[in-house]
């Protein structure tokens, strides 16, 4: 299995009054990693992006230990845990080499923004997803 790793920068505004990264920011870190991971498979033109979009249909996070604000980025690892005709599941770890801060999952649906309906994953998308699959 190949994981995508994104070194996610922390921003001062991500922290709460206690210096911990706010829980809501973990979803943003997962989104940043996922967006960068999929840049290679997304089409460059606006019409293509509208017809071949992805939307999050479910998200879950298990917080392990607090992440304190700091200058150094935190690694967000992403990989595929399953796929079907119109959706796939991604798993995430937000961590350093020696500490796991959070684990998460998202279910991603292939979607056509113009019709407002799910669509089937294309062959190119299925091949891309297979590169990061744990099965």
**CATH architecture assignment:** Roll
SS-derived structural category: alpha+beta
The arrangement of helices and strands along the chain is EHHEEEEEH
* Straight-line distance between termini: 8 Å
Looking at the structure, the CATH topology is Thiol Ester Dehydrase, Chain A
CATH superfamily: Hotdog Thioesterase
Biggest sheet record: 6 strands, antiparallel
Structure, explained:
The chain has one domain: Thiol Ester Dehydrase, Chain A (Roll). Strands 1, 2, 3, 4, 5 and 6 form a six-stranded antiparallel β-sheet that branches. The model has no long low-confidence stretch (mean pLDDT 93). It is of the alpha+beta class and 135 residues long. It has helices at residues 23-37, 46-51, 123-131, and strands spanning 4-8, 53-63, 74-83, 87-95, 100-112, 117-118. The protein contains three helices and six strands, in the order βααβββββα.
């Amino acid at each position: 299995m190949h994981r995508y790793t994104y070194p996610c920068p922390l921003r001062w505004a991500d922290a709460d009054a206690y210096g911990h990264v706010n829980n809501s920011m973990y979803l943003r870190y997962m989104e940043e990693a996922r967006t960068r991971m999929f840049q290679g498979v997304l089409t460059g033109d606006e019409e293509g992006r509208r017809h071949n979009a992805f939307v999050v249909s479910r998200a879950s996070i298990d917080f392990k230990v607090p992440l304190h604000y700091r200058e150094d980025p935190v690694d967000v690892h992403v990989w595929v845990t399953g796929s079907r005709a119109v959706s796939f599941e991604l798993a995430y770890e937000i961590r350093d080499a020696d500490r796991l801060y959070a684990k998460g999952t998202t279910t991603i649906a292939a979607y056509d923004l113009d019709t407002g309906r799910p669509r089937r994953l294309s062959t190119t998308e299925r091949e891309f997803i297979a590169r990061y699959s744990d099965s």
